[in-house]
Design goal:
The protein has 233 residues and is α/β, with parallel strands linked by helices. It folds into 2 domains: 140 residues, Rossmann fold, CATH 3.40.50.1220; 84 residues, SIR2/SIRT2 'Small Domain' (2-Layer Sandwich), CATH 3.30.1600.10. The protein is built from 8 helices and 9 strands. The longest helix has 15 residues.
């Protein structure tokens, strides 16, 4: 069974109704990322950061996986599929994908402020319940979102690189390749395997070297991808 590795970004979840961050109408056009999504901002004003992510958590309750999410899950019938996502939502999981690696954390989970990557502190918390000041993790520190803030390392990058190195087919969906270090994952993809990118945006030619660009949205492009995969067989 061929190993299909898919890197997804905000563009795939945007079509379910979740705001992107860096697009022209993205969240960082109206919100200060360094105040609301950085470790420095969290140290300065924990309440503001908790309020911001509580709103993101509540919003996740209002959306559903879209056609692109569901097709990726269905591809597990014919491929060994690994999804590496920059997204912090759980739409891939809700669509039925079983191998999802989150680079930037997960909105459904919370952790401690002292050591956010301590497995003993990482727990699932109902999206209906806000994270409150004074609420403690297992190590006694303030509970915080299980999110990789700006200024923090991305602990799952090593595993993500390993997965990319083992790909037989590599696909990018809904990311502009400007978020680092995630954008460097394409450097770990084996030479001359089939590579595709589904995104309506424009790219420098050197960024897409070796990729076939399906220049449309995730929902519109996923069936085109499915057909191209079938033609590889």
């Amino acid at each position: 069974m061929k190993h299909l590795v898919v890197l997804t970004g905000a563009g795939i979840s945007a079509e379910s109704g979740l705001s992107t961050f860096r697009d022209k109408n993205g969240m960082w056009k109206t919100h200060n990322a360094m105040e609301l999504a950085s470790i420095q901002g969290y140290i300065r004003n924990r309440k503001a950061v908790l309020d911001f992510y509580n709103a993101r958590r509540a919003n996740l309750l209002t959306v559903e996986p879209n056609h692109a999410h569901r097709v990726l899950a269905e591809l597990e019938k014919d491929y060994r599929v690994d999804i590496i996502t920059q997204n912090v939502d759980d739409l891939h999981e809700r669509a039925g994908s079983t191998n999802v690696l989150h680079l930037h954390g997960e909105l459904r989970k919370v952790t401690g402020s002292k050591n956010p990557n301590d497995p003993a502190c990482i727990v699932t918390k109902s999206l209906e319940e806000p994270i409150c000041l004074g609420e403690k993790a297992a190590d006694g520190s303030q509970l915080r979102p299980f999110i990789v803030f700006f200024g923090e390392s991305v602990p799952n990058m090593t595993e993500a690189k390993r997965i990319c190195e083992e790909a037989d087919i590599f696909v990018i969906i809904g990311t502009s390749l400007v978020v680092y270090p995630a954008a460097t994952l394409i450097e770990s993809v084996p030479w001359k395997i089939p590579c595709y990118i589904i995104d309506p945006g424009d790219f420098y030619e050197q960024d897409l070297y070796g990729f076939e660009h399906i220049k449309t949205t995730a929902v519109a492009g996923i069936d085109i991808l499915k057909q191209k995969l079938a033609e590889l067989c």
